[in-house]
Write a structure and sequence with these properties.
Helix content: over 70%
Oligomer: single chain
Low-confidence stretches: none
Number of domains: 2
Shape: rod-shaped
Mean pLDDT: 88
Number of helices: 3
Number of strands: 0
Radius of gyration: 33 Å
Distance between the termini: 91 Å
């Protein structure tokens, strides 16, 4: 009788070890999956649906965006006019450099 109990106990212990090993593998797989999802979420960030975009809302933020877009549009328009009117590359590149350097100053005054 004791040999039979010992054999059954050994079978139960083997099965318990197999189940424990399966739980460990499952936990490791879950950990890797969570890490992978977290990495994707960090990279995609605001592109995922239901996530905040980081863009401010409200009247003042909208006015600020409109003013910055007007400043940027006007500088691009100046660039187009210079590229159409002036055929030499020095003037074109000079106007581009002045526009790039003047944008932060004009944007600060426009706000």
């Amino acid at each position: 009788m004791s040999k039979e109990r010992a054999r059954r106990r050994e079978i139960r212990q083997r099965e318990a070890a197999i189940r424990a090993e399966a739980r460990v593998r499952e936990a490791e797989r879950d950990t890797r999956r969570r890490a992978r999802r977290a990495a994707v979420r960090r990279r995609l960030g605001p592109l995922l649906p239901g996530r905040p975009t980081g863009q401010q809302t409200g009247i003042l933020a909208q006015r600020r965006r409109v003013r910055l877009n007007l400043v940027l549009t006007s500088l691009v328009l100046v660039q187009v006019i210079v590229w159409v009117v002036r055929p030499d590359w020095q003037a074109r590149l000079g106007a581009l450099l002045v526009s790039v350097l003047a944008f932060p100053v004009i944007a600060a005054f426009a706000l």
